[in-house]
């Protein structure tokens, strides 16, 4: 079976960044399943998996626009330390949720300089060309419930899936 709209595909992957550093990878024997055509994974990877079958291997190079977007410097802000009341130690790399005009936004501290703290609301992989080494391990038809919900259900608990809070697309 080939990967197409409304199939569930699983794949092993290794993700490397522009300098060849490994950013993420699947655990051995634990391929990642996704529902094809539902936007579960980044568009540039999804489109290159289309038509592949179990056993196929590919290297997908994905530009930022098809991945996590370009960096937006307007999402970088300097805020006073007082904005972090209740936090004793502020360190680069700490994550917070900031209130923004567009609602709650996850931000990461990128600099601490005296009483000035720089936070960045960009996705950590924004602006990066990403390379995925992928091996497709399984392709199957999605169930009607999976198609309705727009995500993969673990096979064993298909019926109960949407009683649990992990199911965000009821
Ligand atoms: Zn569900």
How would you describe the overall organization of this protein?
With 170 residues, the protein is mainly beta. The chain contains two helices and nine strands. It has helices spanning 43-49, 144-149, and strands at residues 7-16, 22-25, 32-35, 57-62, 76-80, 95-100, 103-113, 116-120, 130-141. The longest helix is centred in the N-terminal third of the chain and has 7 residues, at 43-49. The model has no long low-confidence stretch (mean pLDDT 91). The chain binds zinc ion. Zinc ion (ZN) binds next to loops.
What is the element layout, followed by pairings?
Elements: E1 7-16, E2 22-25, E3 32-35, H1 43-49, E4 57-62, E5 76-80, E6 95-100, E7 103-113, E8 116-120, E9 130-141, H2 144-149
Antiparallel strand pairs: 1-2, 1-3, 1-9, 4-9, 5-8, 6-7, 7-8
This protein binds zinc ion (ZN).
> Average pLDDT across residues?
91
Structural class: mainly beta
Using DSSP, what is the number of strands? 9
CA radius of gyration is 19 Å
Bound molecules: zinc ion
| Residue windows where pLDDT falls under 50 for at least 5 positions | none
Q: Span from first to last CA? A: 28 Å
Strand content: 35-45%
Number of helices: 2
Order of SSEs, N→C?
EEEHEEEEEEH
Concise structural overview:
With 170 residues, this protein is mainly β. The chain contains two helices and nine strands; from the N terminus they run βββαββββββα. The protein starts with 6 loop residues before the first strand and ends in a 21-residue tail after the last helix.
């Amino acid at each position: 079976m080939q990967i197409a709209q409304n199939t569930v595909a699983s794949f092993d992957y290794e993700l490397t960044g522009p300098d060849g550093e490994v950013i993420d990878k699947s655990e051995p024997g634990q391929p990642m399943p996704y529902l094809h055509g539902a936007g579960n994974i980044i568009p540039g990877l999804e489109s290159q998996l289309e038509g592949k079958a179990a056993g196929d291997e590919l290297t997908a190079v994905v530009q930022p626009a098809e991945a996590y977007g370009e960096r937006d410097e307007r999402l970088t802000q300097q805020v006073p330390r007082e904005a972090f009341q209740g936090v004793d130690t502020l360190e680069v790399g700490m994550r917070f949720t900031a209130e923004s005009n567009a609602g709650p936004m996850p931000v990461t501290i990128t600099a601490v300089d005296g009483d000035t703290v720089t936070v960045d609301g960009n996705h950590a992989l924004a602006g990066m060309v990403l390379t995925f080494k992928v091996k497709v391990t399984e392709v199957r038809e999605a169930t009607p419930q999976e198609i309705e919900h727009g995500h993969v259900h673990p096979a064993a608990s298909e019926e109960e899936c949407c009683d649990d809070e992990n199911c965000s697309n009821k």
